[in-house]
Design a protein that fits this description.
Distance between the termini: 9 Å
Number of strands: 21
Number of domains: 2
CATH architecture of the largest domain: 2-Layer Sandwich
């Protein structure tokens, strides 16, 4: 997901897919649903994204819509089939809170402190927390964020080859294996949240991420597939996946012990297309629902409906789908072009784990 910050941005306006009186706004890389005509493209707004914890005037203003034990947290909501990922704060309230006119605020910088807003960080379940240590200084960490389809749909070309996969509801795990020139094979495990802070999780027999990697034979597969015959330079393989089950309730996928579903592999920072990854990784790959030209958008969106296919048993609803170019590339704003469409029957609870 997008980088969390409260900031002043210029809003871009797009058509809503299923409502004549609503529009989509793109603020930074976030999508927000707004009343049609309320904002003009290029207008400056102050935006607080989902997971913002509000206080004072802001909390009172939005009290009816906030969630959490203290009813003070912004969450994303689905409005006529489109996800709205935060709130736009009216200029008069911005001035009441900060004592400044919106024109006096810096562009695109984090002003959460000035607004009295903090970020909500969900409690990490014990089996996923683990013992943390700094990631080695010579190790890099890339990320995998998925944005909203509505405000990025126009970035795709009609004849472009795209891959649509099922969006799995778990906790994003990041696995690294480094084949060093001195012959060492080094492995690390982290989560999206920890990796963004330059942290990894020490190897453990009880940590869910490490247990999931072991369950699918990840490390042996990577050694078999990528261990070089002759070492001349570092080879770093990075594997992204969803650790399951971790959300409980309706998101078990038939699993009673930790496992991992893989959705991306990079070798020395270059993404490997899904149909070119080693067989040992493909057998634990997230379900591929479509691989072909991006033509009939309405038909492609329908793939977000229905039940999950990870278990092969239709055990519960599907969270949605992820659409990506076959050859990974960036959108015009520099964001990696990876977008999601939620199942209309799916409801985010505001407690999702990174």
């Amino acid at each position: 997901m997008s980088e969390w910050k409260v900031s002043k941005e210029k809003i871009e306006i797009f058509e809503h897919s299923n409502a004549e009186k609503l529009q989509l706004g793109k603020v930074g890389t976030y999508q927000v649903v707004v009343q049609k005509g309320l904002y003009q493209g290029g207008e400056t707004v102050v935006f607080a994204p989902e997971k913002s914890v509000l206080t004072g005037i802001l909390e009172q203003e939005w009290k009816t819509y906030l969630v959490g034990p203290d009813k003070n947290r912004v969450k994303s909501v689905v409005l006529r089939g489109e996800l709205s990922c935060g709130i736009i704060i009216p200029n008069e309230i911005v001035k009441m809170v900060t004592g400044k006119d919106i024109s006096e605020l810096p562009d695109s910088e984090d002003i959460s402190g000035l607004m009295g807003i903090t970020k909500y960080v969900p409690i990490i379940p014990t089996h996923l927390a683990g013992e943390i240590e700094p990631m080695p200084s010579d190790m890099y960490s890339s990320n995998h964020d998925v944005e909203q389809f509505g405000v990025y749909a126009s970035e795709f070309q009609a004849s472009e080859r795209v891959v649509i996969t099922e969006k799995v509801h778990g906790s994003q795990a990041v696995f690294y294996m480094r084949f060093a020139p001195d012959g060492q094979i080094i492995k690390w495990t982290s989560s999206k949240g920890f990796a963004s802070k330059g942290l990894c999780i020490k190897e453990s027999e009880t940590n869910g991420y490490w247990m999931g990697a072991k369950e699918i034979g990840l490390w042996d597969t990577l050694i078999e597939a990528y261990k070089p015959v002759e070492w001349k330079e570092d080879i770093v393989v990075q594997v992204f996946g969803e650790a399951i089950p971790c959300q409980g309730g309706n998101w078990m996928y038939g699993k009673r012990s930790p496992s991992v579903v893989i959705f991306k592999v990079t070798v020395n920072k270059v993404a490997v297309p899904h149909d070119q990854v080693p067989e040992g990784l493909r057998k634990n790959w997230v379900p591929v629902l479509y691989d072909g030209p991006y033509e009939n958008v309405k038909e492609l969106r329908k793939l977000a409906h229905g039940n999950e296919s990870v278990s092969g048993k239709d055990l519960h609803i599907k969270e949605g789908i992820v659409i990506a170019p076959y050859w990974h590339r960036r959108a015009a704003d520099g964001t990696k072009l990876l977008v999601k469409v939620l199942n209309p029957d799916y409801k985010e609870n505001g407690e999702e784990i990174n």
